[in-house]
Every structure is written in C-alpha cells, then in structure tokens.
Write a structure and sequence with these properties.
The model has no long low-confidence stretch (mean pLDDT about 85). A five-stranded mixed β-sheet has the order 3-4-7-5-6. Strands 1-2 form a two-stranded antiparallel ribbon. With about 325 residues, the protein is an alpha+beta fold. Helices cover about 50% and strands about 10% of the residues. Helix 8 links the parallel strand 5 and strand 6. The longest helix is centred in the middle third of the chain and has 18 residues. It starts with 5 loop residues before the first strand and ends with a helix. Helix 5 packs antiparallel against helix 6 and helix 11 packs across helix 14.
Length: about 325
C-alpha cells in the first residue's frame, strides 16, 4: 500500500470548477471521506484513496472530465475515446500527435502541443489563467500525459527539464513528487516538460485488452500515482519504509546503502529542497495518516507503529506536520 499523501491544496483547487457551477462541495467532500473543516488547515493532507473518490465524485456531479473548469464541458468518456484512438498509433510520438489533434476538436480553451528537436522532445501545455487560477488543470494535464506516456510504452520516461509559465506557487514543495526533473524553472515563457526525443520512437506496448483494464481507474489513478522514482528523496523513502515503527537507519547508514558519502547525500538532498530529517518526518506523517483511517487501531497503537514510544510526542509531531492533532484528524474522518 502506498503511504504517500496529498496536500489539502489540491483538494481545494479541484473544487474550483464545482464552486463555479454552484455545486454543494461540502457534500462532495463528505462522500469522499474528507471533512470540510480540513480545508481551513493549510498543512492538512489526505490519502490517495480519499482524493481519488473526490475526483470521481466531481466527474459524476459535473458531468465534465475537466471538472467545470472549461467553458465547454468535456463529457464523461472523452478520455476513454481518446485512449482508444491513440492505442493504435504505433509509436509514442504518433500517440501524442493524435491526442493533440483530438483535443483541438473541443476548442481553444487549452492546448497540448508536442515539439521535437534532434535530441529533445517538449510537451507544451497551454491553459488560460482565467480558467485555471490555481494551475490545477495545468498540473493535472502534465501529470496525466506523463503517466499515460509511461504506461503506453511500459517504461518510465525521466524528465530532463520542466518549466512553468507562472510564478513559483506556495505548494512548490509538492512539485518534487509530481514532476521531478533535474531542472525546474518558473516564470518561463510557456509551460512544458522536456525529455529525450528517442522515447517518441518507442512502440506502444499496450493493447485494447490492457486498455480496458487501465480505463477502470484512469485518469484518477494518474493523478495520485507518483512516479518520482529517480529523486534521491524517493530512494531514501523507499529504503526507510521497511523500518517504519522501529529504529530508522541513520543518515550515515542510508548514505552507505546508496553508495554516497554523508556529505554528498546532504548536498544532493539540499539541491532537491529537502533534508534527511524532513524526509523521515514526511514518511512518518504519511504512514500516520493512513493508520488513523483504521478505527480498530488506538492512537497509542498508531503512535507505536510510526515509531513513537510516547503518545504525547506523537501528538505534538502530528500537529506540527498537519496543523491538527491525531485525535481531531481521526474525529474529522469518522463519518
């Protein structure tokens, strides 16, 4: 089970279109298992399952795959039809081209364009700021198309650069999990992700049968299935997951396992905007959030399972991480 969690920012951003349509968003949140009161806690987080349920509820209630953000709704099933077209494109490059042509049929509210040079390919996403003030659709399209491309060729496509045509957002810390790339730039001329052009020539390995299974969870799963396996932060998390609830490896021990010196590990983490203690804290936070959703576990048991011998210490740490105490977090999700 994934122990990753999702910032409440993305929950609030996802509701923007529904609010424009005067839809009862509190009811949607409750049905997804998210207490509306959490929206007022900027450090609050939800599980991927909760976020997936919210996304599906939003699609159903808005009858729009763009959740009420666009002037022209994208009827449910649009994404599936597009996938059925690109599955037979032959190569990833042709799949991108077909996808771009398909979505041009719906107007100019937003556009996806593939640009290929000798060595690089750039996927450009353009969404009017008036329709996407929190950059939710922009972020979602980048995630969905990157995830879809990886699935089509059955290989993870590492990003070389990613840039955004807007200032650095307050939730920039989340971008490492969403879009990890060695170079990340804001206030750029356009929003685009860059990867090696060779990937465009790879054959599509999926079939109509595998597509049928894929569509049972897509595109919701593409929004919560983090693929940042290349970052040092993710590698450290994977190493330490097996030690949640017990004494975790020290920085020196993790550095040795990764064949790095402690100084290099610290420097590379700092380059990703992270610290070793921060990685450990986020891992414990995510594990605690998942465990608190299990009513059969007492708060003392949750504390022990994430490595705290004192429940009071766990309470203080959890409130520092999320803005609420573990008891209140559980109470808010008891419905």
């Amino acid at each position: 089970m994934s122990r990753d969690t999702i910032s409440i920012h993305f929950v609030k951003a996802a509701l923007t279109g529904a609010k424009r349509l005067n839809i009862d968003t509190n009811g949607l949140l409750t049905r997804a298992g998210i207490e509306p009161e959490l929206l007022s806690q900027p450090r609050a987080r939800v599980s991927p399952d909760q976020y997936t349920r919210l996304a599906r509820s939003l699609w159903l209630v808005t009858q729009d795959e763009h959740l009420g953000f666009d002037r022209i709704p994208r009827r449910l099933g649009t994404f599936a039809i597009m996938c059925q077209l690109i599955i037979h494109a032959g190569t990833l490059g042709k799949a991108f081209e077909r996808g771009s042509q398909f979505y041009r049929l719906f107007g100019d509210d937003w556009a996806m364009t593939l640009i290929r040079d000798t060595h690089e390919a750039r996927l450009v996403i353009s969404v009017p700021k008036t329709l996407d003030p929190d950059h939710f659709i922009t972020e979602s399209m980048l995630m969905i198309w990157h995830g879809l491309a990886c699935w089509l060729i059955e290989r993870r496509i590492p990003l070389e650069r990613i840039q955004f045509a807007y200032p650095q957002p307050e939730h920039v810390d989340e971008y490492d999990a969403l879009f990890f790339a060695p170079v990340m730039k804001f206030d750029a001329e356009r929003t685009e992700m860059t990867f090696a052009a060779d990937y465009l020539d790879l054959p599509i390995r999926q079939t109509e049968n595998s597509l049928e299974e894929f569509l049972k969870t897509a595109p919701a799963q593409l929004l919560v299935k983090f693929k940042n396996a290349s970052s040092l932060t993710s590698r450290i998390r994977e190493l330490m997951k097996a030690h949640i609830g017990e004494e975790m490896p020290t920085l020196n021990e993790v550095a040795s396992l990764l064949y790095l010196s402690p100084q290099t590990l610290r420097r590379r983490l700092a380059a990703e905007g992270k610290s070793f203690q921060g990685v450990k804290d986020n891992l414990r936070r995510d594990a605690a959030i998942h465990l608190l959703l299990k009513p059969e576990l007492s708060l003392e048991e949750v504390a022990q399972r994430v490595g705290f011998s004192e429940t009071s210490t766990f309470h203080r740490a959890f409130k520092k991480w999320t803005g609420v105490t573990p008891g209140l977090y559980r109470q808010l999700h008891a419905n």
